[in-house]
Design brief:
The complex is a heterodimer. By secondary structure, chain A is α+β, with helices and mostly antiparallel strands. Chain A has helices at about 20-25, 25-55, 85-90, 105-110, 135-140, 165-175, 210-215, 265-270, 320, and strands spanning about 70, 120-125, 130, 145-150, 155-165, 180-185, 205-210, 220-225, 230, 240, 255-260, 295-300, 310. In chain A, β2 and β3 form a beta hairpin. Chain B is mainly α. In chain B, about 80% of the residues lie in helices and about 0% in strands. Chains A and B meet through loops of A and α3 and α4 of B.
């Protein structure tokens, strides 16, 4: 067909739907202009000061130590979506080591001991070893990246992470030619994590990526969010963020990274292989056996009565990561 | 003491108070929604809470007859209809929350979802079975149906209890998180088991025993007016 329609697979936003970048970038000025009109010059100068003090996503929450970063230049790393309030991002979490309810991690994770911390690199690499957290923090300049986060349960957030591409670390340890996969193992300490030992999942929590996925510049090794170090419930002190996959693929509180030639077993796949595949790319056309993945609720933004928003292929990162899966049957490799 | 409690249950203020108590969770949820106090995902909170309260109301209403029989507090019978209607009330709110927040009132999507997901189908079946019970809850319906047929119809609530637990079990199965499911299954299982055991003792079990051990076993008579 010469003329593309919704019927023949064209499902991207049409250009008229998209606010022109120039207009979008001027939105603060527009608001300030309104403030001037409404409240006179006194208030407007206050609004201006406030605008300068803020980042794109608002003021730093001021709860934890600051972690400075430069805006990332990686393609696709700076989503223009409205950022989720810190209050929601730090109180609505899945971190089963601290309980299965979304409010459990924020209530229980204070027991997690994040110092001293080190990450063991092992398996098929030329330079295996143990990296102290301090060394990881200095390994590459910190970048801020504003990523969409889509949970497999059908909700989403937009989070300003701080970290750098995992590829920076991988290059330092020099994987062998035989390495095809990377496994990420989270801490499993029954003394500080009350629900390790529950039969919900196999502990420790383990996740995995293909080496080319792990090397993709969007795959982030994250140490912070909202300009501060990670709160415990979000996976302190170091976690993975893979923005085009469902959230559970991004392991938290990582203690070991292992390079291997075999596809590693992953926590949710071991628990329910028919529901959670190894790839688990965000895909609105492949439903979870128990619910649709076609739409999602944006936490803190989509009100109670707002319709859920459509989920995007690869969570909107298709342009950056689509080629990783060229020729693959994504229904089979879900 | 016994007659005192019974008299107490017969007081004019008792039923209105019970009504308000049963309404309290709904009021609390509406208040929470209006004041934005339901956490980061209020839609999910409302959906889960209305489901929880349906299960709780179901446990309560199924308690009435065993409690009345065991304790002899006959006046408890007066609460059964209201509690039963509260089961339906919370079930309607639960279905409404699902249709609205999850499905945006898209009837086609809802129909597809019911067909596709067994746990939704089971929940919906429970709701469908509850509907005739709610519709025949008033006195004229009882008269029109006749007490026996009415009672037979209303035994559907046992099937609803099984479906409700299955619905909850399936919903939690994804996370292998069955602690809460087990609590409801235990309570509802005990309440249904009590009825089954009474029925067996009063009938099948006794017939079987008699056929094996002769006629020396007497069939006990249930006290008048105490149905199972």
């Amino acid at each position: 067909m010469l003329i593309k329609s919704h019927a023949d697979g064209f499902q991207h936003a049409v250009s008229s739907d998209i606010t022109p970048h120039a207009v979008y970038n001027r939105r603060r000025e527009l608001l300030k202009g309104l403030a001037t009109l409404a409240a006179g010059s006194g208030l407007a100068s206050w609004a201006e000061r406030a605008a300068f003090a803020e980042t794109r996503w608002g003021a730093r929450p001021g709860k934890l130590a600051a972690l400075g970063a430069q805006a990332s230049k990686v393609a696709g790393a700076m989503s223009l979506d409205k950022v989720t309030p810190y209050k929601d991002a730090s109180s609505y979490n899945n971190f089963y080591e601290f309980g299965t309810d979304k409010s459990d991690p924020a209530a229980n994770a204070h027991t997690l001991k994040t110092t001293p911390w080190s990450v063991e690199i092992e398996g098929m690499v030329k330079k295996p070893g143990k990296f102290a957290l301090e060394d990881l923090l200095k390994l590459s300049p910190m970048e801020e990246r504003i990523y969409r986060l889509r949970c497999v349960e059908g909700w989403s957030m937009v989070i300003p992470w701080v970290g750098y591409s995992l590829a920076e670390l991988i290059r330092k340890v020099e994987p062998l030619g035989s390495a095809k996969y990377v496994e990420f193992v989270s801490l499993a300490d029954p003394k500080t994590m009350p629900f390790v030992g529950s039969r919900v999942l196999d502990w420790p929590y383990a996740e995995g990526l293909r080496l080319d996925e792990a090397m993709h510049p969007l795959t982030l090794l994250s140490f912070g969010m909202y300009g501060e170090v990670l709160p415990n419930q979000s996976g302190a002190p170091v976690r993975l963020v893979v923005p085009w996959k469902y959230g559970f693929k991004s392991g938290k509180s990582i203690v070991k990274i292992r390079f291997t030639d075999k596809q590693p077993g992953t926590a949710w796949n071991k628990a329910a292989a028919n529901e959670y595949g190894f790839y688990s790319n965000v895909n609105p056309t492949v439903d979870h056996p128990r619910w649709s993945q076609a739409s999602e609720r944006r936490i803190g933004e989509d009100g109670l009565f707002a319709k859920k928003r459509p989920t995007q292929m690869f969570n909107g990162y298709e342009a950056q990561v689509g080629q990783l899966y060229a020729g693959m049957d994504l229904k089979k490799f879900f | 003491m016994h007659t005192l409690v019974n008299r107490w249950l017969m007081q004019g203020w008792f039923k209105p108070t019970l009504f308000l108590l049963c309404l309290l969770p709904a009021i609390w949820l509406v208040f929470g929604a209006v004041t934005d106090n339901l956490g980061a995902n209020p839609a999910e909170a409302l959906l889960r809470a209305t489901g929880d309260w349906t299960l709780r109301a179901l446990c309560l209403v199924l308690c009435v007859t065993p409690l009345r029989t065991v304790s002899g507090l006959t006046a408890l019978a007066r609460t059964r209809r209201m509690l039963g209607l509260f089961v339906y009330f919370y079930a309607v709110l639960h279905l409404l929350a699902y249709s609205w927040f999850d499905m945006g009132f898209e009837v086609a999507d809802i129909a597809k979802d019911i067909a596709k997901r067994p746990f939704i189908l089971v929940g919906f079946a429970g709701f469908v079975l509850l509907t005739p019970l709610a519709l025949t809850s008033f006195n004229r319906a009882i008269k029109a149906l006749g007490a026996r047929r009415w009672q037979a119809l209303h035994r559907l609530v046992y099937a609803v209890a099984v479906l409700a637990v299955l619905h909850f079990f399936w919903m939690r199965a994804g996370k292998n998180n069955f602690a809460e499911v087990a609590v409801y299954a235990l309570i509802l299982g005990a309440l249904l088991g009590w009825r089954l055991q009474r029925r067996l003792r009063g009938g099948l079990l006794l017939d079987w025993l008699r056929s094996r051990f002769g006629r020396q076993i007497e069939r006990p008579r249930l006290p008048a007016g105490r149905e199972i």
